[in-house]
Amino acid sequence: MELQGVHTLLETSAAARPDKVAVVHDGERVSYRLLNSSANRLAGFLVQRGVRSGDRVVILMGNGVKYVASYYGVLKAGAVAVPLNVETGQETLRRLLDELQPTGIILEQGVGYLLQQLPLAPPSVSFVLAADASFPVSEPRLVWGWDEAVRGEELPEGSRAVPAEALSSIVYTSGSTGQPKGVMLSHGNIVSNTRSIVQYLHLTENDIQMVVLPFFYVMGKSLLNTHIAVGGTVVINNNFAYTASVIRQMAEEGVTGFSGVPSTYAYLLHRSPLASFRDRLPSLRYCTQAGGHMAREIKERLLQVLPPHTRLFIMYGATEAAARLTYVEPERLPEKLGSIGRAIPGVTVRVLDPQGGELDEGECGELVASGPNIMLGYWNDPEATARVLDCNGYHTGDLGYRDADGYLYVTGRKDHLLKVGGHRIDPQEVEEVLMSCGFLLEVVVLGLDDPLLGKKLVALAVPLGGTPSDRGLLSFCHARLPRHKVPGEIRLVAALPKYPSGKIDRASCLSLCA
Q1: 3-state SS string over 155-182?
Q2: Helix, strand, or coil (residue 335)
Q3: pLDDT for 421 beyond 80
Q4: I need a labelling partner for 490 at 20 to 30 A (CA). Which of 23, 160, 209, 264 fits?
Q5: Which PROSITE patterns match (predicted)?
Q6: 211-241 pLDDT, tens per residue?
Q7: What is the mean pLDDT of the chain?
Q8: Distance separating alpha carbons of residues 470 and 460, to the nearest angstrom
Q9: What is the CA radius of gyration of the chain?
Q10: pLDDT band, very low/low/confident/very high, at 470 (cuts 50, 70, 90)
């Protein structure tokens, strides 16, 4: 089937079911007809402002109806959508704007002060579209209000057709291994991955997805695109800090799907009424997890606590892969609990040695992926692109192996391996052991510089309820790990620093240990 632009996912669903509710957010229930019309009008506004195919348009908005209309509207205009975290710091925002040279910026209430503090926006910026009518402006000729923008003519659908290889979006990585990199995803990358996910999750127009992950994060973007593609409904809840309200809304809306990263599920298990709501979630067909390694203990507990009819999909992916690379079929999960599964439809994931040769089952090497979902490269960074893309595909940086059934396992990351006293140690192995004690909500194992050992292992752990002793945890590790893998110190903390996606921010965790 010929690949089309990402925005045609919305257009097709709007034509097929115009009166169906597409998005639910804070009391708003927006139909496909209205959502598509708003996106068309926004696209018309952008074209009138001189936006051309390939121009970058930055979106600085939290999850909401206006974000969704902005995202698809930018794509309809043939431009490149660049969603950024609304909590981006002033210095980082200045660097990103200089790097992107965007034609325009769409922002919401509370974000405008960032632009106010910047001495000078890039000269490329010809307009700022403010979703908040009270946005303070120092350059009124550049600023337009949302209502004014969506009051004009709709851009006729198809008037700016884009080829599958055209750049659709630049999505920034979390920066866990250095400066955030702008991942360039084509329309074909996103549409092919969307179709593959729809296929293995068996999504239909009857699916209702609860979204607590930010849309600027590649997994959040994937949740949006997959459910818009099938004509389903996206329920946006930006209040995950109040987990009880999320669970209640899932019950009220008849949510069929929920997705999260490991910390999402840790908090649902231990700081929400999920267990007591089992009988009030008859529609919850599936849950999906990605965004990093989830401890075995959490997976086992989820299988016990989730409603018996709810299927749990453990998945693996990367921003560079337009989101998804592998998944474990729920029926195989109990026997493959430590696995990231097999490649999704249309994708190949191999275990290669440093010379690019494919390794046999059980042999550890780097996971390398290929398929139509693999990124075009990093924005304005050919050197970084060349380090991860070659004739074999995308080098994930994850180390792992394949078992006799073809299931893949991640044993750690090349850039997270720590050299302690001459031994190479993967922090993930130590974290897994600590989590198995059952007394912790989450944990991270880090390497601090040490003049004798090179690195010294230190664990930051968030206790559940009561306060386990650090000596007790160390004794637990000594009974299960070789001496050189036991942390030299375990520090109990109230919470671990995280990125807005919910992933643990290892760099900030290191600063806590300083």
Answers
A1: CCCCCCCCCCCCEEEEEECCCCCCCCCE
A2: helix
A3: no
A4: 264
A5: AMP_BINDING
A6: 999 999 999 999 999 999 999 999 999 999 8
A7: 91
A8: 10
A9: 23
A10: confident
Please state whether beta strands 56-60 and 311-318 pair in parallel, antiparallel, or not at all (unpaired).
Answer: unpaired
Q: Around 64, how many Cα atoms within 13 Å sit in the side-chain half-sphere?
A: 14
User: Other CB atoms closer than 10 Å to residue 257's CB: what's the count?
Assistant: 27
Largest CA distance in the chain: 70
Distance CA 463, CA 465 (A): 6
Burial class (CB in 10 A: 0-12, 13-18, 19+), 301: middle
- Cα separation, 327 vs 6, whole angstroms: 23
Strand order in the sheet with 233-236: 28-31, 21-25, 233-236, 208-211, 257-260, 286-289, 311-318, 323-328, 342-343
Match 């643990």 to its residue by tokens.
504
Contacts of 177 (CB under 8 A, 6+ apart): 397, 415
Quote the tokens at residue 506. Answer: 């290892």
User: What 3-state class would DSSP assign to 269?
Assistant: helix
pLDDT in tens, 348-388: 999 999 999 999 999 999 999 999 999 999 999 999 999 99
Quick check: helix, strand or coil at residue 144?
strand
As a whole number, mean pLDDT of residues 308-317 equals 97
Q: What domains appear along the chain, each with residue ranges and CATH number? A: 7-17+29-162 (3.40.50.980), 191-370+388-413 (3.40.50.12780), 418-513 (3.30.300.30)
Q: What is the mean predicted confidence (pLDDT) over 48-63? A: 95
DSSP readout, 191-258? HHHHHHHHHHHT--TT-EEEE-S-TTSHHHHHHHHHHHHTT-EEEE---TTSHHHHHHHHHHHT--EE
Amino acid identity, position 219? M
| Structure confidence by residue, pLDDT tens digits, 291-304 | 988 999 999 999 99
Structure tokens, 273? 């009424």
pLDDT bin (cut points 50, 70, 90) of residue 327 is: very high
Q: What are phi and psi of 377, to 5 degrees?
A: 145, -175
Instruction: Report which of residues 141 and 25 the model is more confident about.
Output: 25
Task: State the DSSP H helix or E strand holding residue 408, giving kind and residue range, or none if neither.
Answer: strand 408-413
Distance CA 104, CA 45 (A): 11
> What residues form DSSP beta bridges with 352?
358, 366
Quote the distance between the C-alpha of residue 43 and its chain's center: 26
Q: What predicted TM-score, i.e. pTM, was given to this entire model?
A: 0.89
User: What is the average per-residue pLDDT within 20-42?
Assistant: 97
Mean pLDDT of 392-409: 96
